[in-house]
Amino acid sequence: KSANPQWREQFDFHYFSDRKDMLDIEVWRKDNKKHEELLGTCKVDITALPTKQTNRLELPLEKHLGSLLMLVAVAPCTGVSISDLCVCPLGDPAERKQISQRYCIKNSFQDIKDIGFLQVKVLKAADLLAADFSGKSDPFCVLELGNDSLQTHTVYKNLNPEWNKVFTFPIKDIHDVLEVTVFDEDGDKPPDFLGKVAIPLLSV
Length: 204
Description:
By secondary structure, this protein is mainly beta. The protein is about 5% helix and about 45% strand. Strand 1 and strand 2 form a beta hairpin. The model has no long low-confidence stretch (mean pLDDT about 85).
C-alpha cells in the first residue's frame, strides 16, 4: 500500500557483450493472489552504459505515471562461465591444482568474500512431459544460484534432450540452493514448466 515503494534489492545478470541486450523492467501491483495490474515498463540499453562504474538511472515509466530509480553497474564477470564438456574448468589437472591451492586452509582469509565456486555439468533429461500438440517438447534448462541465473540452449522436438554443458557459478552464500528448472520454449509466449529440482549447496 505505497505509491513510493523502496525495494533495495540487488540482482546479478550475466551479460555477454556479443549480444545487443536490453534490460526490460516491469512494475506490477498486486491486489490479491488473483488480481495483478501492470503499472508501467521501461528499458535500459546495456551497451550504452559506461563500464566499471555504478550508473544512477531515473527512468520514467512508459505510458504510465511515475518513475523507477535504480543503480546499474556493468563490470567484467568473474567466476561465471558456460563451456562444453571437453573444456570444463576442473577437467584440467593444472587448473584443478591451482584451484585447490587457492581454497586451501592457509589461504582461507586471503579473500573473505571468495567462498568458492560451483561447477555443474548439465548432461541430459529423460522422459520429459510433451508440451506441444506434436507430442514433443522444445526443452531448455535454467540454473539459478542465489540471484545468478544461467541457461542451456534449446533442443527442439525432443523429450530426451542432451545439453552436455558445463556451468560455473561463484558461491556468495554457502547456504544457497541450486535450483535447476526445465522449461519448454514456446515462441513469443512464456515458456511452459516441465519440472524442477532443488539442491542445497550444503548437501553437495
